[in-house]
GntR family phosphonate transport system transcriptional regulator
Amino acid sequence: MSNTPLWTAIARALRADIAEGRYAPGDKLPTEAQLAERHGVNRHTVRHALSALVEEGLVRTRRGAGAFVAARPTDYPIGKRVRFTENLRRAGRMPGRDVLSTEIRVATPEEAAVLDIAPGARIFVSHGRSLADGQPLAMSESYYPLDRLPGLPEALAEGRGVTHALKAAGVRDYTRASTRVSAVLATATKAVVLQVREGAPLLKTTSLNVDLGGVPVEFGRTWFAGDRITLTLED
Amino acid sequence: MSNTPLWTAIARALRADIAEGRYAPGDKLPTEAQLAERHGVNRHTVRHALSALVEEGLVRTRRGAGAFVAARPTDYPIGKRVRFTENLRRAGRMPGRDVLSTEIRVATPEEAAVLDIAPGARIFVSHGRSLADGQPLAMSESYYPLDRLPGLPEALAEGRGVTHALKAAGVRDYTRASTRVSAVLATATKAVVLQVREGAPLLKTTSLNVDLGGVPVEFGRTWFAGDRITLTLED
């Protein structure tokens, strides 16, 4: 259309450059002056185009440093079956996991209630970090009812994933009974682990996984880097 | 138990005071000095108890202003049927809605694709704010395929809710086809509308509602105040 504003053409050209990988996530875009010259427009027009791309989440600006291609967030399905490794592979990402620490201890009354175990029963707690293509994606705390899952700590230590370890501990299959999602800001500690800045937005989920009989096998809290993930729910 | 640390008793007393409504959401708690005197402990013990309640999300501290009872977040189910009014009523909250602005215009190519309408077809866009007990809960943009929903703007203007208006426009029932959730920081504009501070954490959802035949009837973007809502998914 002849009355399409000029800035939309610049935005479209930049969108195509990003889609075709000419600028990859994290790359700095040319300066406003360079873009203005290249497209034969004024800087106001360039700024309008960049604003539109920022609004779309394709581009991020850093004060004084210019405009950068935003990292494409990973789509992460939250449905009846939530499997980290499968989810990442399906999104075209290489999954990774670091175990930060583990402990075996007596459950608090709240933990016992959530996991439906006797007060005073033991739990296995694993603190970890999930990665996508080597970049930190999430920090998590997983709580397992230890007496219900003999051999679980050893099976998890093999590093073949949660599904594999649960199977080794006698859980043939498991499903997600509930997920709760909220938005919080990164604390100093989480910022270091997730490699985001303090105060960055995080998606916090708390979730319960149960076996085929509905018995809890894992309760978890996860903090996802907000700009690296989109939780998706499809029917 | 005799070896329970002293701070847990203080935390338990404060938790009970909050649960019983002696301190309501938003109320300022007594100062550290007052709590120390009341319980016959030192301020270090009081501070430990308050830290635990902050960690649990029950209490918030504001630098220089003291400790306040945190607003209890509203549980907001995101399932196959997402109904704002029903969701709020079920959470024991009084639902409210402000329409900030509306427009009728030609769909962009992206909007036409999402709503499965012809390029150039008209859409009705409603910008609004949702309230829980009079407090802003969310800001939203709703996009409706106008030609598919004759009379919708007038029906929405009656203020009897989206479900009612869609019914008046011929949609007997509708379900949520997909929801995408991310975490973002409040911009200056959103901070004003939501009455949060700039940079506060927001839950952003993008969602598609379809009629019983799977035809899109509404596409929406919503920004929820992160500390006032928990999205819940149950199986």
